[in-house]
From TrEMBL:
Its cofactor is a divalent metal cation. The active site is at D285. The gene is LOC106123481. Gene3D superfamilies: Metal-dependent hydrolases, Urease, subunit C, domain 1. This is N-acetylglucosamine-6-phosphate deacetylase. Residues 58-391 form the Amidohydrolase-related domain. Substrate binds at A149, N229, A230, R237, H263, L319, C320, G321. GO terms for molecular function: metal ion binding; N-acetylglucosamine-6-phosphate deacetylase activity.
Length: 398
């Protein structure tokens, strides 16, 4: 009797790899994707388990780098049961093909950061829920003029650079992204400091002109938060942060964009996509109302009214996040832009992984990467099952 190889083989499937959908088996061992040549020619091993995928599509697991909550949970508000709230959302996200995410906190009181931030820890995914990559801190170092749904009671300048951020946030150990406005006093020093710690900096909620944005990129920023929303509109003499899509800076600038059918017009999606296709990242920017009916919810200290799936700051028509999950955004994006299926899927997997510098382990199905993937219907893009580290963590009800 042959010893067990620990190998699982996914057979009869169409895999998204290297920008193409190819007919190829996927081999997994110890939570990683393995090279079948090593298996066949060196080890001469056979799979312990073979799964027939019936010509379905296997795509890298989706990565949501901006999500404020969902299913009644708001990451910036619910400070009593932080861990339970985060895990509830992490578990629900599996049904939408999201295998990794960045819980996002909006502008909040200093005490909220002290009570919440240390308790949202970077956590590997599994049956309990999607991987927590780290917290995305959106505010309070943003422009009052472009505050959007952020409370102006807590918006401040990072006058002392990184020291100002530490005074408000406390420890940055659990943080992976900070969104700030680059034109503010001390912002460029803060960007340099964050970058030196390995924390990614996104530009947003800002009145910055293009020169401000380019200085920020040279200091280490590599992201724009929800393009077109909460920034100066494009102008031909100074295109503002939007101009970074066509900038001559040496490194790739990535940008989150919300394709929920509400935040961004289809023509704007097409303009962004055609201007800088490599940098486009789909984000849900979902609020506590994700997965729930219309009603009243929270985003940080602000109250949210959801009407016909649209989330507004109560008493206004100011949009404050979406109610759509990332798999829905992919479908709407593909419809709006008429892009290839391969590209649409990579905007929610490979692109966010590249922006975070983790594409060697997440966001693709290359050999050696984590076996985080989604099995989908290739026509409807319905999520049929979700896998993390080679383990099935969600199966759609039949």
């Amino acid at each position: 009797m042959k010893p067990k190889s620990g190998l699982t083989r996914f057979h009869n499937c169409n895999i998204l790899r290297g920008g193409k959908i190819i007919k190829e088996d996927l081999w997994i061992r110890d939570g990683k994707i393995v090279n079948p040549e090593q298996v066949f020619y060196v080890e001469q091993a056979e799979a312990d388990i073979t799964i027939d995928c019936d010509n379905l599509l296997l795509t890298p697991g989706f990565i949501d780098i901006q999500i404020n909550g969902g299913w009644g949970i708001d990451f910036s508000f619910d400070s009593d049961n932080v861990e339970q709230g985060v895990y509830k959302v992490a578990k629900e996200l599996l049904a939408h093909g999201v295998t990794s995410f960045c819980p996002t906190m909006v502008t909040s009181d200093k005490n909220k950061y002290a009570s919440i931030l240390p308790r949202i820890k970077k956590t590997p995914g599994g049956k309990h829920g999607a991987t927590i990559l780290g917290v995305h801190l959106e505010g309070p170092f943003i422009s009052l003029a472009k505050k959007g749904a952020h409370s102006d009671d807590y918006i401040i300048n990072p006058d002392k650079g990184l020291e100002s951020l530490r005074e408000i946030y406390g420890s940055l150990n659990n943080v992976i992204i900070v969104t700030l406005a680059p034109e503010l006093p001390g912002a460029l020093d803060a960007i340099k400091g964050l970058t030196s710690l390995g924390i990614k900096v996104a530009l947003g909620h800002s009145t910055a002109n293009l020169a401000d944005g380019e200085k920020a990129v040279k200091c280490g920023a590599n992201l724009i938060t929800h393009l077109f929303n909460a920034m100066l509109p494009f102008h031909h003499r100074d295109p503002g942060l939007v101009g970074l899509l066509a900038t001559t800076t040496e490194k790739q600038v990535f940008y989150g964009i919300i394709s929920d059918g509400i935040h961004t017009h289809p023509a704007a999606l097409r303009i962004a996509c055609r201007t800088n296709s490599d940098g486009l990242i789909l984000v849900s920017d979902a609020v506590a109302a994700q997965g729930l009916p219309d009603g009243t919810y929270s985003i940080g200290p602000m109250s949210v009214s959801v009407e016909n799936g649209r989330a507004y700051v109560v008493g206004t028509k100011t949009l404050c996040g979406s109610t759509s999950a990332l798999d829905e955004c992919i479908i709407k994006f593909k419809e709006a832009t008429d892009c290839s299926l391969e590209y649409a899927l990579e905007t929610a997997s490979l692109h966010p992984a590249k922006a975070l510098g983790i594409e060697h382990i997440k966001g693709n199905l290359n050999y050696g990467c984590d076996a985080d993937f989604v099995i989908m219907d290739p026509k409807t893009l319905k999520v049929l099952s979700t896998w993390i580290a080679g383990e099935c963590v969600y199966t759609a009800p039949k």
